[in-house]
Amino acid sequence: MVDETNAALGIALLHVHGDEAGILRRIQNELFDLGADLSTPLDGRNAEGALRITQAQIDRLEKEIDDWNEDLSPLTSFVLPGGTAASSYLHLARTVCRRAEGLAVTASRDYAINPLALMYLNRLSDHLFVLGRRLNDGGDGDILWQPGASRN
């Protein structure tokens, strides 16, 4: 699922430019780091010296989320995937990332997994959501859920 998240980001990058594209390329590289981390349990062979996700990588995601949230329109409802092509593909990447997180949490019940790897996946899904809103005209182009709109 980590590789699928990376592939979905590659598709999103067809529609993302500027600073955000550079951020997504950095994240694609970090997803390879994450894959290496997850494939080497903390208590397994080759654990010493293994490539691991770090707190600094998580902190960077958090900072970007906070910075972008400052400029977004406030949420008044759940956001449906859609709007711009970039935002739509980021929503797809976000859902794949959430699935990867769920699988990693399940695996952590049987294997000693770096807890920072789990945190990274959690923060990345939020990061992709906020970036998707940012690329939907700062949230103004979000497609909002209208509860019960089709019941009549």
Structure description:
- By secondary structure, the protein is mainly α.
- The chain has a single domain, classed as Hypothetical Protein Ta1238, Chain: A.
- It is 59% helix and 3% strand.
- A two-stranded antiparallel ribbon has the order 1-2.
- Helix 3 runs parallel beside helix 5.
- It is globular and about 60 Å long.
- The model has no long low-confidence stretch (mean pLDDT 93).
Give the topology, please.
Layout lengths: L1 H11 L6 H20 L16 H15 L9 E2 L4 H23 L7 H20 L8 E2 L8
Antiparallel strand pairs: 1-2
Helix pairs in contact: 1-2, 1-4, 3-5, 4-5
Strand content: under 5%
Mean pLDDT: 93
Spatial strand sequence of the major β-sheet: 1-2
- Tally the structural domains: 1
According to CATH, what is the topology?
Hypothetical Protein Ta1238, Chain: A
Tell me, what is the CATH class?
Mainly Alpha
Rounded radius of gyration (Å): 17 Å
Low-confidence stretches: none
Largest sheet: 2 strands, antiparallel
The beta-strand count equals: 2
Class computed from helices, strands and strand pairing: mainly alpha
- Helices and strands, in order, run as HHHEHHE
CATH architecture title: Up-down Bundle
Shape: globular
Helix content: 55-70%
Q: CATH superfamily, called what? A: Cobalamin adenosyltransferase-like
Distance between the termini: 39 Å
- What oligomerization state is this entry in? single chain
Number of helices: 5
